[in-house]
Design brief:
Layout: H1 27-33, H2 39-47, H3 87-101, E1 109-110, H4 112-119, H5 123-136, E2 139-142, E3 146-149, H6 154-178, H7 181-185, H8 188-200, H9 203-219, H10 224-237, H11 250-268, H12 272-284
Antiparallel strand pairs: 1-3, 2-3
């Protein structure tokens, strides 16, 4: 149930785990990337972040998307097969994973065509995914260059943790008084999936499991707006920091995963003092 930011350690060599997406390039995209587009097309492309000159090498973002409810496969072995109908969504998921894993470095500029080459697609779905990340605040558009990963510090992480506590703690305490034990039991597979991801030491997969658990827990309140806002804050809290603390290792992830299970036990038993202690202590530590 971590509110502690995932801060990206020395990134593993991800070029050996490349994700190949079936080619979706339109004619205009192909011509633009080969440098034969019209002057008007070049101008528009630059404004969208397609300049590729002098750009440093980029690791290929790895998709580590073991679904929270799956228990059969090892976390690290899970690799999705990208389908033609969901190229943009697959690229967006992969870029989000790369952010959490620290494979897209804060302050670095990435262009859509160069990232597209790593994924084996045209610049179009990458650009669309990056524009979504810009709306979420993860990157910012750099005219004629691409998209820069936003630099974030420990103060922003602390502020996000404080806001999350103000939203989540009262809701969980209210749910502890009203939700029957059988409903809490439905969340245990999600908590157990997070524990498996933590045991594997996979920060990106654990981040997905962590958000899935919180999402399901808050959804019991029946307030869709609350769930949406809390999920956005949680995702932002998992982005890498500049000059932040040492990235959490396997032991830290396992401690967080254990908090999920302990909280479920307290909620199932309607042990309100234990619930209050667990949720308050969690956010107070961040």
């Amino acid at each position: 149930m971590s509110a502690r930011g995932s801060t990206g350690s020395a990134a593993p060599d991800i070029r050996t785990a490349s994700v190949r997406v079936p080619a979706q390039a339109r004619a205009a995209d192909v011509e633009r990337e080969r440098g034969v587009a019209s002057d008007e097309s070049r101008s528009a492309a630059g404004a969208r972040g397609e300049h590729t000159h002098s750009e440093p090498p980029i690791p290929h973002p790895r998709v580590e998307s073991a679904r929270p409810v799956e228990a059969a496969r090892p976390v690290e072995a899970a690799r999705p097969v990208v389908q033609r109908a969901s190229v943009r969504g697959q690229i967006l998921d992969a870029l989000r994973t790369a952010l959490v894993a620290g494979e897209l470095a804060p302050g670095q500029v990435y262009s859509a065509p160069v990232l597209g080459e790593r994924f084996g697609v045209s610049a179009t779905p990458v650009r669309e995914a990056m524009q979504q990340l810009a709306l979420e605040g993860a990157v910012e558009v750099v005219p004629n260059r691409g998209f820069r990963v936003v630099r974030r510090g420990t103060r922003e992480l602390a502020e996000l943790a404080e806001i999350r506590a103000l939203l989540e703690v009262p809701v969980v305490l209210r749910l502890a008084r009203t939700v029957p034990a059988a409903r809490w039991a439905e969340l245990r597979p999600l908590a157990e999936a997070a524990a498996r991801a933590a045991s594997a030491g996979c920060r990106a997969t654990y981040a997905e499991c962590d958000r899935a658990f919180h999402h399901a827990m808050l959804a019991l309140a029946g307030n869709d707006q609350l769930v949406q806002i809390a999920d956005d804050l949680h995702r932002r809290a998992q982005w890498p920091l500049v000059g932040g603390p040492v990235p959490r290792g396997r032991a830290d992830l396992m401690a967080d995963a254990a908090e999920h299970l302990a909280l479920l036990d307290a909620l199932t038993a309607q042990d309100l003092p234990a619930v209050q202690s667990l949720v308050r202590e969690h956010f107070a530590d961040n």
